[in-house]
Amino acid sequence: MVLASITRPRQVLAALSVALLLAAPAPSLAQGAAAPFTGCSASESTDLENAIIAARALAGSAATYLEGVSEDQRRFDAPYETWFGAYDGWRYGRVIANYRAIEGGLAPASTTFSCDCPSTAAGEEVHVAQGGGGIAVCKGFWLAPVSGGRSRAGALVQAASQLPGPGGAQLLAATQIESTTLAGQRPSDALRNAATYRYFAEEKKDAGAEHLPAALALILLIVAVQGFRRWSA
Predict the structure, then answer these.
(1) Cα(166)–Cα(103) distance, integer angstroms
(2) d(CA 13, CA 24)
(3) Could you tell me the pTM of the whole model?
(4) Which residue, 148, 122, 150, is CA-closest to 137?
(5) Please, are residues 215 and 12 in contact by the beta-carbon 8 Å criterion?
(6) How far is CA 118 from CA 140, 155, 162, 174, in A?
(7) For position 181, what pLDDT does the model report?
(8) Which residues contact 148 (CB under 8 A, 6 or more apart)?
(9) How does DSSP classify residue 137?
């Protein structure tokens, strides 16, 4: 049954968030003004703009997921525990706030973006200037898909988490295995690990997409029932 396939309200919330993102036309970052990209060709500017839009949606979806978990269930939430460690009310709230700050930090009015990658960071995906002076995209960025696992969007979320606004995270653990180990052993450090924000967001984006068909089917079912009640009244 459709209803049986949706077991948790936050799955519906995450799925609906994804549905709205997919249904809405992609906004332009440069409405009324040019996006602050330096050193980028026209095609690179377009690709970077699309990646920024996807990254903001990724961070927003992660925050929406966490906000949708009821307070009595937060200590049992497996995805949170996997990436951020044992539940603590203050840390949980800090993660949500950081994702919202990442979402805002990726706005062109807040951060400058550049295609001029420093030679010392040529092998990286992105480079964050010291003091949060901006984000430069590098060779690895262009080799990644726009969204999904190990994506351009995820790379930008990781970079934005290192900006002063979201709290200035650092790359304490780079790989997924290192990040989950850090969460299990030192949750307070997982809160400050830039890669953790990327991996959690990419994972929850995929999870929201998995529940999308069931959520849409539920909406159609509700509409059909309401229509039948009006017809039969």
Answers:
(1) 9
(2) 16
(3) 0.76
(4) 122
(5) yes
(6) 13, 17, 17, 20
(7) 98
(8) 202, 205, 206
(9) E
